Request: fold
Amino acid sequence: MRSEPAGDLWRTAEAYEAYMGRWSRRLAPLFLTWLGPVPHRCWVDLGCGTGALSAQIARTCQPRRLLGLDLSETFLPYAAGQVPEATFLQGNAADTRLPAREFDHAVSGLVLNFTPDPVQALREMARLTRPGGQVALYVWDYAGQMQIMRHFFDAARRIDPGSAAFDDGIQAPICRPEPLRQALGAVGLMDVNVTALDIPAAFENFEAYWSPFLGGTGSAPKYCAALDPETRERIREAVRASLPTGPDGAILLALRAWAVKGTVPA
Reply:
């Protein structure tokens, strides 16, 4: 049913913004309010992407230093344009090559499940953070209330069982409260806490919901781009039928992310 996948997972900043970046920008204020940071601290944003979390840190936390790292050459210029007061570098979240204990906060947004070794990425975040500092992140509740993706993959799997290989609700078991809590504890963090971050997602009509899936950037769009036209159309209509649609065609969904934080031992 599928042709060869086109390109890598993260192709363009604009496509990512239309697909997930805009929702991450709405999660970031809730996440930082939950962290409750004090001003004039040093921050590193690992897997900074298009700068959604970095922008909110710069806007509300008065950082003394703000560094963003990402592997994507296409995302970094976009992030730098959004947050000129920060420094952005290309780097691997699991092996940054940065000096240890340089930051008060090591954070990431919607990244952990895309790292080949999530525990190693957490270990690197802890290494970069000063004693008494904070490691914190958020990830989508892929298996539950991340309804944009659940409607898509629940419909796709009825038509093409192979879609499960792209479904982070199946492929990313760490994106649940207890696995997150255990993972932070496993790298030696203390006072680990998990909370839900909830936002609504409103779409004017079905096309507004569907068009980001055609951008080729992200798990579901990459899967969608590799489909033959007939299968893609069958999935499209199955998704359309599953969505809660109002009389005027508007669609309102719930989006949940899990946030987790822990303290580096003194």
